[in-house]
C-alpha cells in the first residue's frame, strides 16, 4: 500500500515496527507491524484516538523509545541497533523536537534555548541560517528574555526555532499546539508549514486537532497500534470526515 | 497530622535519608559523650566506694598546685593530736599524698600513664582509715623499700623483691618493691598509679619537710559523724576543710574525671559542629520538599485543613525524622562510648570498668536535641507551607510564596554592621578580652553572611565559575546554582562555617608555632642548652650535677608555681641570679633587676599592664601556701620564657615554691665542643631519664608539640565538617534532580549526553562548594589575623598564614563538590527520558 505513495526521496521509514508492554495475557500491543515511509521535505501529520499508538510511533521514530520488533531506518541507519549514547548524539545532531509543553530550559534565554543543541554539540551556529530562522519566528526583540517572560505561543515558536536551528533530518512535533489557543496555534503551525515549503524541512507531527492536521501534506490515521488510513493534501473538513468514517467502522 | 507526616516520610524516604544521617551524626556524638562520662563515674563510684575514712581533714590550697613545682598545702602533726583528743574520735591517721611522681619502667624510661599523674603516698597508720589497702607483701620501711599499686606493677611486670627507680619532685630514689597495694580508693588520686613509702620517708622524699596533706579520722562506733565533724571544725581553724565520708564521695574529685572529661568535651564539640552544619541541610531539604509538594499541601487547605494543621503535617515529618535520627544516633553513640572504653581498657591503666551506662538523662537529652534541632530547622518551611493559599491546588503556576529577601538582607546587613563595630572595639582591646570580642564578632559575621548570602551568591557564583568556560553544560550548571540563591547559599553556608572555623584555627596554630620559634629565638640569649622535664618540675639535684660537668660555665634555674594576684591567675617564677641578664634576653623597662635580691618582684610589661602595676607599687600574691605582700622592683619587656611574677630563688621558696626546677639554661664555656658537653651532661643526669637536654631548635620543636596536637583535633573536626557539608551538597543536588526531572528529560531529549549531564551537576556542586570554602577561608583568616594582632603581646607575636594549606583546603572543597555530584548525576542520567518529560 505504501509503495505507491513514494513521491520523493524517503527521509525516515519503519519496517514492521511493533511495540508491546507486558507478557502473556496482560500483553498490550501499542504498535503492531507498522511499516511507513516519510518523504523528505514533506509535512506529515499522525492522527488517531487516545491509545492508538500515535505518540509511541513518534517516540520510536525519534529514538526516544525502543521498539520491540521491526526497524526504524533514518537513511541507511537502523536506529534500533544504536546504543543510548549514539542515540543521544543522533537526537542532538540530526533530529529536532517540539513537545506539547515544557520545551524550554527555564534558566536560559530564548536565544540560548534556540542554540542549545548546537552548544551541546560544541558547534558554531551558521549565522545566516540562524538569522533566517529567527526572522521566521519573528521574536527578534524577545530573544534575551527567559521563557517565564514569554507567552505560551511565543515559547512554542522558540521551541520550533530550536528544532530547526541544527538543520536536522527530521523535526518531530508531539501535539505542539495542544496547550495553545487558536491564534497561537496558527502561528506555530504556519511556522512549521513555512519551514517545509521554504526550507525543505521534513516535519512529522502528532496531533488530535483536524485544523492542525490540515496544515500537513499528508495525514496518517492510527488505531489500536495499526496504520488504518491516510489522506493526501487534507483540509480540516476532509480530515473530520475520515475520522467520522473510521469511528463508524469500529 | 502525625499520620500524614509519617506517610509522607515513608513515601519520600530518599529525600529524608540525608536529613536523618545529619541528625544521627550529631546525636551519636552527644550520646557518646554522655554515656562515656556516666560509665566512667559509675565505675569510679562502684570501685572506690568505702575507701574513705569516716571524717577527712584536708588543708585548703588557695591555688590548686596541680603537678607543678608548688608544694601542696600541709597540716601539722599537732593538729592530728588535737583532733585525736576530740570526744568520739577513735583514732587519727595523718596522711601524705603528692602528685607528680615518675615511676621508671624496665626500659629506663618513665612509664606512660596516658595523662594521669602518678602519686606518692605515706603508708597509712591505721587500716581503718587507710586510703588504700595492702594486697601482697609487707609494708615498706625506710628509704630502701617501697610499695606499688597492683595495676601498675602488673602492667610494668614488677615483682616483689625487685629494685624500682622512682623520681619524686625532690629527688631520684631506687628502692626494693616489698608490697603490692590497691590504688587510692577515693579523692583526686583514685585509680592513678601509686607509690608509697613509710610515713617518715614519704615526708622526706615527697615533701622535703615535715607535714601531712590530710588527716583521716576514725569515729568511735555509735557516735554521730556530723557532731564529731562539728567538733573538729571548731578546733581546726580556717584554711582547713572537714568532710564526712559521704561528702568526700559526693565531691567526686578525681584525676580520672579531669583527664577523661577532656574526651567528652571534644566529643561535644564535634556534636555541636555536626548538628549546626546538619541544621542547614535540614532547612534546605524541607524548603525543597515543601516547594515540590505545594499543590498537595494547598489541596489539604482546599479540603478544609487549617493553616496550623498544614504547618503541623510538615513539623510532624520533622519529628519523625528527629525520632529516627536520634534513635540511630543513640545506638551509634553507645557504640562510640563502648569503643572509647575498650580503647582505654586496652591501655591497661588502673581504670575501673563497668557496663555502659545509658541513663534516662542521656536518652531524654538525645531525643530532645535531635527532635528539637530537626523541628526548629524545618519550622521556616513549615510556616511557609501553612501560608499556601488553597487556590494553589487549582493552579499550575503558583509556587510557595517565598518571603521577600529584603527583611533577611536587612537583618544580615545589621549583623555585619554590628560585627564590624565589635571588631573595631576588639582590635582596640589588647589581650584575651580583645580576642574574645573578635571571636564573637567572627560568629556574628558568619551569621550575617548566612543571612545575606542569597545576595552574595547571586553575584559570587558567576565570578567564581568564570574559569570553567562557557560551554553549554557549564552555563546550565552555573544558572542552576544561581536560580535559587537561598538554597545555594544555605548549602554553601554549611561549608563556610566549617571552613571559617578550621581556617581560623589553622592560622592561629601556625601563628602560635611561628611565635614560639620567634619567642624562643628572641628570648634565649647566651644559653646553649635548655634543660626541662616531660613531667614538669624536676629535682634541683639535676642542676647541681650539671654544674659539675666540665665545660658548663653556668647553670641558670627557673622555678615555677601557680598563684593569683588580685584574683587573676598568674605564674610565679623563681630565677637564680643573673638569669635575666644573659641566658634570657630581657630589656629592662623600669626599676632594677638588683631589686630581685632585695625580695622584690620583677614583672613583664604585659603582666604589669594587665594588673595595673608599676615600679614601687605593692601587691598581694596568693599561692597554695598563703598570702604574701610584695613590691614591684622592676618591669621588663614582655618575653616568652618568663611570663610570670619573677622572684629571687629565696623569695620564691618563701612564698611556697618547692625546691624543684622547671627549666635550666646552660651556658657553655668558650672553646668547648657543645656536642661533647651535651653527652657529658646527659651522662650526669642518667638517674633522671625524663630530663631533656636540648639546644634551642630542639627546644622550640618540643614547645611546638602541643600545638601540633591541637592541629590533630582540628584536622578531625575538618574531616567531619567536610563530610556533613558534602552530604549537604549531595542533598541539594539530589533534591534538585528530583525537582527538575522534566527539565533533565528535555535536555536528554534534545541531545545532552551522560557526561554533559554529569558536568552540569558537577558545575553546580563546585559553585556551591567554592562559594562556601572561599567565604569561610576569608572570614577565618581575617579574624585569625585580627586575633593575632590583639594577642601579639600575649604570646602570638607573629602572624603566619599557611597559604599552601588554605589553598589546598579550597581545592579539596572543589574536589568534594565533584564527588558530591557523583551520586545525583548517576541518578539523573538513568532517568527515562519519556517518563521524565511526562513527570509532574
UniProtKB/TrEMBL annotation, chain A:
Which keywords does the record carry?
A: ATP-binding, Nucleotide-binding, Transport
A molecular function GO annotation: ATP binding
Hydrolase found in the keyword field: no
The record's section on PROSITE patterns has: ABC_TRANSPORTER_2 (PS50893)
- Residue ranges annotated for the ABC transporter domain, each copy included: 12-249
Q: Give GO cellular component annotations, separated by semicolons.
A: membrane protein complex; plasma membrane
Among its keywords, does the record have Cytoplasm? no
Q: Name one Pfam family in it.
A: ABC_tran
SMART domains named among the record's database cross-references: AAA
Protein name stated in the entry: Putative ABC transport system ATP-binding protein
Q: Which organism is it from?
A: Kribbella caucasensis
TrEMBL record, chain B:
Q: Does the keyword Transmembrane helix apply?
A: yes
Output the Pfam families linked to this UniProt entry.
FtsX, MacB_PCD
Q: Which residues cross the membrane?
A: 266-291, 312-344, 356-379, 405-428, 434-456, 488-510, 709-738, 765-791, 803-823
Residues forming the MacB-like periplasmic core domain are 17-234, 489-681
How would you describe this protein's topology in the membrane? Multi-pass membrane protein
Which cellular compartments is it found in? Cell membrane
Q: Which UniProt keywords apply?
A: Cell membrane, Membrane, Transmembrane, Transmembrane helix
The main location is: membrane
Q: Which residues form the ABC3 transporter permease C-terminal domain?
A: 269-390, 717-832
Q: Which Gene Ontology terms of cellular component type are present? A: plasma membrane
The entry lists its GO molecular-function terms as:
transmembrane transporter activity
Membership in a protein family: Belongs to the ABC-4 integral membrane protein family.
Name of the protein this chain belongs to: Putative ABC transport system permease protein
- Species assigned in the record: Kribbella caucasensis
Lineage, top ranks: Bacteria, Bacillati, Actinomycetota, Actinomycetes, Propionibacteriales
